[in-house]
Amino acid sequence: MKLKLLELTDDKARILFEGEGNTYIDALATELIRDPQVDVAQRKQAFRFTDPELVVTTVGGRPPLLAITDAAKRLSGYAGEILSQMEALETA
User: Fold this and answer.
1) What is the reported pTM?
2) CATH number of the domain residue 84 falls in
3) How many domains does the chain divide into?
4) Less Cβ around it within 10 Å: N or C end of the chain?
């Protein structure tokens, strides 16, 4: 996954996810919006065949890149939990 920072201000980030589909970005946007200091988290895509972009705006002084990093870590944690449970099912 290659990321390209398109815009960064104190309360807004736009990141292009080169070569990626929508699935991960939609999950990341859903996780981001659970953060009370995230105002907007959405995927934008000009055309179906173009790379998707994630737009995040924050409130209360939360740096948008930190909000994105924290949300990605939470998603990774959820995936680890599912993996552990699936492995436990296989050995049961």
Assistant:
1) 0.87
2) 3.30.1360.10
3) 1
4) C
